[in-house]
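Narrative progress, year one. The postdoctoral researcher (J.K.) led the effort to move from monomer predictions toward full complexes, under supervision of the PI. The following entry was the first complex the group processed end to end, covering 672 residues in total.
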Amino acid sequence: MSSLTIDKAGPRRKVKYGSMSRDRTWALRWSYFFLTLFAIFALLPPIYMLITSLKSSAEISAATNPWWVFHPTLSNYIELLSSRQYLRFFWNSAVISVVVVAVTMLISVPAAFALARMKFWGSAVLATGVFLTYLIPDSLLFIPLFKMFATIGNWTGIQLINRWYVLLFIYPTLTVPFCTWIMIGYFASIPKELDEAAIIDGASWFQTLTRIFIPVALPGLIAATIFAFTVSWAQFLYPLVFTTSTDQLVLPVGIITSLVKGDVFNWGQIMTGALLGAAPPLIIYAFLMDYYIAGLTAGATKG
Amino acid sequence: MAEVNLRKVVKRYDDVEAVRGIDLDISDKEFIVLVGPSGCGKSTTLRMIAGLEDITDGDIMIGGDVVNDVPPKDRDIAMVFQNYALYPHMTVAENMSFGLRLKHYPKAEIKARVTEAARLLDITDLIDRKPKQLSGGQRQRVAMGRAIVRNPKVFLFDEPLSNLDAKLRVQMRIEIKKVHQKVRTTTVYVTHDQVEAMTLADRVVVMNKGQIEQIGTPNELYHNPATRFVAGFIGSPAMNFLPCRLEQVGDQLQLRLTDRIAFPLPPRRAAQYNNLPRNERLLLGIRPEHIAEVRPHAEPGIEPFEAVLDVTEPMGMETLVYFTLEGAEICGRVNPNAGARDGAPMRLAVDLNNMHLLDETSGVVLGRP
């Protein structure tokens, strides 16, 4: 009130009052600007792949405008999808990823539950230790791992090297620690009273896990599943090292080894193969994102 | 339904003794409230009865059986938590029936029990909702429903109303009392709110520093506290304490507060305190409602004095007046029409028929019947 009269009496000054809505508008504009920038940056490679996959080898080697298809063709897709070899890679990748996700969840969910809730001697150290193992890079681990499986082969006669299923043992060394760590975080955020209520209601530890913790921590479970699937689907170094025969290869390694012949790069098919290979994770993301809603614990306790 | 007995129960965490040897007998159908400041061990005691905490020493009995090593699910108890602890992914009905479903009760009986509990708590319309669609008060009702359907031997409440706003708290308090009158299950209720304790309990257990200070009915605790802690904890505004001495003047026993102020004790009190030493430092405990404006035709034992008021607080039905006497801040309750004003002198009267005398060092109330 008083400031109004002062303004009238004194000389006219341009006072810039802060406006909440104006601030918000600008914040929105900036965020759209950077989001657009980021979207272009992220989407250019797949678009480039898509464009290239629709070109014939002749058009690619003619080196015309790389961002335009003059004679679109589906021949790369038809050739790949009718190739027994490519379907084999796909199948190997799919089986390995699905089994690894299942194994990972079966191990890391109970492990995380135990580490988050059952306070036993050394549980805190163990929880940190689990995560630390994830920090060791696979480029350091593959040699000792190779040696290990080779030795097992020598001792027992069970040949694991150059078999696709050796990856079922190796990938969990990457996925289990990280997923356990994610799930520890999610389980720890569930209020303690919830499991106490369940225990008083007569639930065993196992029932508390399956009927309370898993449903409540579903977003975390989905995050862990997505992570485990992505890691096993996209893993390159381990399959490159452990598998060599074409019928044992997984998709990323298979595309490189079968479509790059010496110094001849079959770009059209490589792009097509990679694009098709990116489809399953994309579909899984799209499907699981619907369930990936934060705030599923809302209403459990006073929030 | 059952009685609960605690025998010299001790809880020790590493070096800290949270509960130091508690003896408590709770009879069947009784509503017991454990009350005390935070950290007094009341919640720990409740959690030990529930079986959520191991006991370090002593025995806990439910229905005559020692349950020290019995897991919570086999103790036949139900607990209501401060933050409700509802299962967020289940509907109200599923929340309430969870315990029964785990025990494989027949579907028809589960349905009957849930319907009955929902009717009792007036949440029949909410039965298909998820917890997040409920208000705080409704969630607390569901939490109580989950306890009721189990039909346990003992109900345990851990500060169930602390998360509710003041108005709802009063409403739910009455609700809890009504429910107890209907189901008559032995109840142990923990709160830090002395009003809740007074209004709900058959008997109140006042705890302090891991020990029981006093057990008694609300009125006993209010009118006949055993220690300074209980006297000061129960009642709002709190009891006034000021230093005093007993003096013998002829055959009269006199209470001296300051050099200028001394009151003769009424005959009944004089007899009660006759054995106490004279001229030693004691503590006078007097509740605010026993310091009021001077009225004509004063009864014996009501002694007038003059005070300059520091602050007055009009509450509507009464006015609280604060003044200083010998460095101690004193609170009184006067009639709103008595003309109390900030900074003004006022004639007040203290009702010595309701006084308490305490030992200054130990805080024990002296001369209790």
